[in-house]
Fold:
Amino acid sequence: MTSHGRKHRRIRGVRILHEDADVIVVEKAAGVLSQATRCGASARVREHTVEDALGDWVRKGQSKSRLRVYLVHRLDRDTSGVMMVAKSEEVQDYFRSNWNELTEKTYLARVEGKMDAPSGAFESYLCEDPKTLNVYSVSDPACGKFARTEWEVLEEGRNASLVKVVLKSGRRNQIRVHFAEAGHPVCGDVRYGTGGRGLCLHAWRLSFVHPRTHETCTFEAPPPAWARTARRSAKTVRADEAGLAEAARVLNAGGVAVIPTDTVYGLAARPDCAEAVRRLYTIKGRAEQKPIALLAADADAAARFVGAAAADAGRRHWPGALTVVAQGEGVRVPDHAWTRRLIAACGGALRVTSANLSGQRAATDAPQALADVGLSADLVVDDGVSPGGVPSTVARIAPDGSAEILRPGPVSL
Structure:
């Protein structure tokens, strides 16, 4: 799917993850309203909202433009995470007519206490009090709307649990009500719980069937700090023979894995799996204008991406710390023997970026990688502490084999 070049632009309280002709997908900050509310007919102060911010965005500063955005769902003010808007009434109707079948929403929540089981589901009919606007469960289907909330415990602490929540219906305050009624209110919930420093509820992942292409698209918002303490999120294996087989299975099936490299831990996906590569960007919060380099098993595999001249230039220094750039790709052959074997088992090349959120320190061990991206990756390969070191030399190779150094490093040309 083609996206506009303004992707990952930050607006006040909103970060654009994806934009095309039909939809805009954003990451909403906690504290920002999805849509304006009024405290009575005479209310004059209009708060900043996602709807207003994106309306200004599509109008591109032209006050007389009639362009606007159309909400297809909302997040509570204090809930952070992924949210989508439509760019036309037709697209809005497409989603609203069959929302539960066209989308899947996955949340992260920190809830009070320990759950009674490792996973489960809540079902009830939800009703809203017209005076207090509080939502609660009722037994009579005629008085409420059916709601189902599926959950899985990711981590248990002494006083709270981190849970992954999948909504099978989209009712107002559904997660907050279901967990509160089960005796495990969301931490920080002032309305249904005991309050605190902030609501620990994050719309982590949104999948939807695109109205134009009919492809399933998935976008993630990096977990907030309160959710990045999990150590039992992604499956962890050792960098041995069994681990190699499992990592190859995950990657060849279109998954994303954290793997060791020469200096730090990397987040890897097969280059021919567009959805997995898209996940690399969303997991890191990385702008898609920034390319992700390839690691190749050997020079012959590298030549498929950068051509013979560039591969020959790299061959003299591979395996090692030289990335060659040609034909719009950057590639190197790593010195890490286990990782080269894994790459060979995955078709000869992997797209690999450092296993950390953009702007943060790169992970040099598996626990750090788990804390940063373990909730989003499918597998983590633990090879102990990586040695760190200087990033690779990056050189652009011309068709005649001449080199232009783009980033100095350990290798001299």
